[in-house]
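Practice record 12: protein with alpha-D-tagatopyranose.
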Amino acid sequence: MKKLIAAILSLSMYGSVQAQDDISIVLVPGLTTDAFYITMNKGAQAAAEALGIKVDFQGAEDFNPTLQIPVLDAVIARQPSAIVIAPTDTTQLIEPLRRATEQGIAVVTVDTFIDDGAYQNGAGDGDFPMSYIASDNVAGGRMAAAAMGEALGGKGAVYVSNVRPGISTTDQREEGFKLEMQERFPDISVLDTQYNENDASTAASQLQAVLAREPNLAGVFGANLFSALGAANGVDSADKLGDITVIAFDAPQSIVDQLKTGLVDMAIAQHPAEIGYYGVMTAYAHLTGQSVPPLIGTGFTVITADNVDEPEVARFIYSD
Ligand code: T6T
């Protein structure tokens, strides 16, 4: 009798406690072909294996809300227990994700957030996801500016190569970069940000166009994988290796190759496998009646040509 009462009480307290066999989770990345999300999925699958559950990986081929929303709608139609998603826009994904919540599907966001990223606090339109698991992107942007400022001896002109406004991660990296520059390197001029729509070729052409206007260009911060890869390729095509410092966010093998040739000076590796692992673990914890933290911060590893071969560093190079 006591057990029955306890079971009824726990169900009414936690609402959606699920039996292990019924749990299904879908991971929706920003895009499927990016080494960052491929590595995130490895972490998610490691968690799935540890828990004995199935986690599907379903996403679009470009980092774009217009493509991601139909994928999300198709995932919602399958009625999984939870969706672990990297939303590609802070506002455009709020309503589609609310539809999931209204149908009893738990939402956890990984890497990027919706609204202001402060969840479960009763404030704002998009506070309904259970948790946000990600790098501290403002801190990452500050790390990039600190390295750039020191490499340039506090002088020169630089710019941020970025994707498009409205993406929480890359917006916050740019914000952190500019704050650090203002506070610590006021003599460095930060030129207008160049937006590349997540296309490395566009980022490469933009490097050359900025250089044509600003022949003394001294540095570029590539705020994500494709921005950094493209900016470094642009430096290569302009024959400016050694003259322009490139600080890269993200660490796929292509960026590691550029570190080795000297085209990239430093790469800030996120820990996407950790993000995927804790994304699934958090969804599972919630589905099985545990309370979960609204924010889980994951780490960074700074990679340079000097440390890239050390096993403790090399393990954070993304998988393709
Ligand atoms: O930098 C990552 C991710 O953190 C960001 O939200 C989007 O771009 C990447 O996937 C790299 O391409």
